[in-house]
Structures are given as C-alpha cells and as structure tokens.
Design a protein that fits this description.
Chain lengths: 111, 113
C-alpha cells in the first residue's frame, strides 16, 4: 500500500527540541520531504533528503533517514511558538509522478 | 510575485450545483496537480497534468473534471456537488517530475450545504 504513517500530535515546550517521525512504504522513492502547513495556508516545503543519504542538516532542522526501516524523522532544535503547525512527510511514488503525503503531525509549542 | 494562485479562496454552495476552481502558476513549471485535504487533514492526490497532458487520475468520481488550457493553468470543475465534496482543494506545481518537490497554492475551502 501507499500509507505513510505519522503520529497525530506532539506537544513541546518553547526552547526544547521536537522530533517528528514518519514511516513510509515505497523503497524506490528518490527523495523524501518535510512540509509545514500553518492554519489556513498551503503546504510549504521545509527540507528534503536524497534517498542515499542518512542525514541532512539545515539550520535548526535535522533530517534522519533509516532506509532499512523506511523511517524518516525531522528534528527541530530550539523550537519556537512560530513552529506550531502541521508537519507532513512525503515520498515520491508512482515512478516519481506524484508525492504521497503522510497523515500529518500537529506540533504545539507551549510557553 | 512568483507563485501558485488559486481562486476562489472560499466557496460555499448548495448540493447539486456545478462549480469551478481555477489555478495558475507563473513558475514555468511543467506539471500541475490537484489534491484534496479532508477534515482530518489527509491529503490525497486527485489529478496531475504534465504539459497539458493528463498523467494521473486517481479514482476520482466522474463529476470532477480537470482542464488544462495551457501548462500554466489547471482548473477543476465539479458537477452535481455533494456534501462529501466539502474539503480544502490544493493546487500544486512542480518543475517536471514530482521528485523535484511541489509548490502549493494556498487552497480553496469548499463547503457544500
């Protein structure tokens, strides 16, 4: 199947690190992505990782990829209230013709 | 501004009506998509077009008909609207293949009453 699973909800305190996890299904995906959706807005590409990499760091964001377990994670360092949003992982599927999105994780950052 | 723009942003209509949502991108991308996001925030692809040619049609009722007059536009027409069509519809585009990543529009919230 094409189900990409994420936990539904994560709550952290401001300044702490957040880790959002994702389990994908298509081992032939070339890229895996993290998108952010703020209320009433479209999805914004945060970062992506090529499938032959284990890790990618981009300022406060760290992406880890375990291809054997088909597990992707996004770590946000020093989480701020502006990071509160829904985060979606995605993989390119269908021979690269489409992105399949995860179920989304609602991140809530508390003061 | 370079972007993917959708109109209208909000659409409230009665069951049985026919409505259209328009999408335009000025990014020079070759591929455009329609996604449906339901009330639980699940995103599901509906259609994709590459250079005006239909590439993906994912088990969508025939009441939904996409039209791409040129590669910068992908419109979505919905006939005989049903309550279950209420959702947020997102247009997106990519440079060529989806693997290059998408740029999304801000969405059209459709409410069928």
């Amino acid at each position: 199947g094409e189900d990409v699973e994420q936990s539904l909800f994560l709550s952290v305190r401001e300044g702490d690190s957040s880790v959002i996890n994702c389990t994908y299904t298509d081992s032939s995906s070339t890229y895996l992505y993290w998108y952010k959706q703020e209320p009433g807005a479209g999805l914004q590409l945060l970062t992506y990782i090529f499938s032959n990499m284990d890790m990618k760091q981009d300022q406060r964001l760290t992406v880890l990829l375990n291809k054997k377990d088909k597990h992707l994670s996004l770590r946000i360092a020093d989480t701020q209230t502006g990071d509160s949003a829904i985060y979606f992982c995605a993989e390119d599927t269908g021979g690269g013709n489409k992105l399949t999105f995860g179920t989304g994780t609602q991140l809530k950052v508390e003061l | 501004d370079t972007a993917v723009s959708q109109t209208p942003k909000y659409l409230v209509t009665q069951m049985g009506n026919d409505k259209s949502i328009k999408c335009e991108q000025n990014l020079g991308h070759d591929t455009m998509y329609w996604y449906k996001q339901d009330s639980k925030k699940f995103l599901k692809i509906m259609f994709s077009y590459n250079n005006k040619e239909l590439i993906i049609n994912e088990t969508v009722p025939n009441r939904f008909s996409p039209k791409s007059p040129d590669k910068a536009h992908l419109n979505l027409h919905i006939n005989s609207l049903e309550l279950g069509d209420s959702a947020v519809y997102f247009c997106a585009s990519s440079l060529d293949r989806a693997a290059y990543g998408y740029t999304f529009g801000s969405g059209t919230r459709l409410t069928v009453v």
